[in-house]
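Bench notes, afternoon.
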Amino acid sequence: MKSRAVPAAMGKMGRLTAVGRSQRGMAYLALLIAVAVMGVGLAATASLWHEARQREKERELLFVGEQFRRAIQQYYENSLGIKKYPMALEELLQDWRYPGTRRYLRQMYRDPLTNDAKWGLVMAPQGGIMGVYSLGKGVPIKQAGFEAILAALEGKQSYAEWGFIYIPASPQ
């Protein structure tokens, strides 16, 4: 009889082990599904965060670009005699053409897209800088809904096409 008791006990243990394995397999499967769902959720959140950050950089670029355009306009319009554009962006920080201090920009802004102080320059036909543009890569998210003064930016397919240029109403 003893020989029968041992296999019977092993049979019971075998059944318990199979049930335990089945429960562990279900827990493992549930864990894998949870990890997959969390991964999809994190990927969607990262995508939304990246787009929101890019929109913020675009808003900053529009502000900074408009500051440069206005500074170039003031420099040009305040020229004595023949109107001329600045030969370097640094001339917008301190205009040496006058005895007193004249500043058209408070600081030399960095390009929000590249985080660099280097800008693309739009050169005037008669010499000087008539505008700036970002050296950032990529396609702008904002394609419409610009202020009237920036209406020329609508539909542009790269940030380099977002030129902040001063063109006088009646050039001399």
